[in-house]
Amino acid sequence: MKPTVEKDNRPDCPVGETQCPIIDELMMLRQLARTDPLTGLFNSRHFRDALLQEIERTQRQGQPTSLMFVDLDFFKKVNDTHGHEVGNTALKHLADLLVNNLRRLDIPCRYGGEEFVVILPGTDLYTGKFVAERIRSLIESSPVPLAKGELRLTASIGIDTYRSEDQDTPDAFVARTDALLYQAKAEGRNRVVHGVADLTTEAKISADEKAALSDLFTKR
Ligand SMILES: Nc1nc2c(ncn2[C@@H]2O[C@H](COP(=O)(O)OP(=O)(O)OP(=O)(O)O)[C@@H](O)[C@H]2O)c(=O)[nH]1
């Protein structure tokens, strides 16, 4: 889901007009305050608000929320070798890849620098692991087209899930997921590291469903 001009929470025009330039301007500024200018993704401010909302939904309705940290590998070398502009092109390339390969409900954000974060509402860890692996594989197999040749990238990913019975705070959830990303870096990069699997949920998924999920993600 990419930022679009918000239609909800639109304040009423103080003089009751349907077209109100001041309200339009206010909505635009509100949008800008939540958007990363380089990639067009949501920024870390929006990420925090959206995560709080999804965790609240998990606590009230029981649907799990997964969280994925995606960080490009050796990105400093990209800047050092090809220059900052090419680095920026690579960041935009990754942002587009995320937008084009996630569900519309998912919330990809630029967390900062070369680190991206995606909220996956209503997604258990089993499904989240498939999504993460598909994104990792797509990054590896989709080089960035440059004026001269192409730039190959890889990324490390940490993914974990907030379940209705979880007691940790949103910050603690972010910290435990971020720690998995750092584990992926430490274990050699270009890999997905996930949190502790919920064996009861996994056991409920039939072999047919697992095969269908696997098929779905390998065919895309
Ligand atoms: N081009 C560009 N580079 C950025 C931007 N934000 C951060 N960076 C660069 O991202 C690089 C991150 O480098 P490091 O934190 O050392 O990480 P890394 O080289 O990717 O190494 P690992 O993450 O350990 O694989 C630094 O060189 C930053 O300058 C940006 O908006 N544009």
From TrEMBL:
Q: Domain of life, per the record? A: Bacteria
EC number(s) on file: 2.7.7.65
Instruction: List, for all copies, the residue spans of the domain called GGDEF.
Output: 63-197
Alphabetized SUPFAM superfamilies for the sequence? Nucleotide cyclase (SSF55073)
Q: Which reaction does it catalyse?
A: 2 GTP = 3',3'-c-di-GMP + 2 diphosphate
* Cofactor (UniProt): Mg(2+)
Pfam families noted in UniProt: GGDEF (PF00990)
Q: Which CDD domains match?
A: GGDEF
Q: Which GO terms describe its molecular function?
A: diguanylate cyclase activity
This chain's protein is named diguanylate cyclase
Phylogenetic lineage: Bacteria, Pseudomonadati, Pseudomonadota, Gammaproteobacteria, Cellvibrionales
